[in-house]
Specification:
This protein has about 110 residues and is mainly beta. The protein has helices spanning about 25-30, 90-95; strands at about 1-10, 15, 20-25, 40-45, 50-60, 65-70, 80-85, 100-105.
């Protein structure tokens, strides 16, 4: 089940030389309840790419959303993406489950 989503984040950087992952503003990580190095799925609204990687914390309040390593080939600076985190739940847990949805503005600041 969907556990958390960061909706319409803007890619701010791309670093093909880094070994891999998505660098994400630590404030967004915490707001969504995503753990550092957790596996995530990303959907790029500009080119239709969907891919998986893991999160590494970026500077708090920086708004950073950086595609690293091979993920840098999946989008460019300025692309808008949706970041998904999934979890496993029992039937009992699902009854009361509501995913965390974080909406951000064009500078990746939380608006809702």
């Amino acid at each position: 089940m969907l556990r958390a989503k960061i909706h319409r984040a803007t890619v701010t950087e791309s670093d093909i030389t880094y070994e891999g992952s998505l660098t994400l503003d630590e404030a967004l990580i915490e707001a969504a309840g995503i753990r550092p190095y957790e596996q995530i799925a990303i959907s790029n609204l500009h080119n239709g790419e969907r891919f998986e990687t893991y999160v590494i914390p970026g500077k708090r309040g920086s708004g950073v959303v950086c595609l690293n390593g091979p993920t840098a080939r999946k989008g460019t600076v300025g692309d808008v993406v949706i970041i998904f985190s999934y979890g496993y739940y029992t039937e009992e847990e699902i009854k009361d489950h509501t995913p965390v949805i974080i909406k951000v503005d064009g500078k990746n600041r939380i608006i809702k």
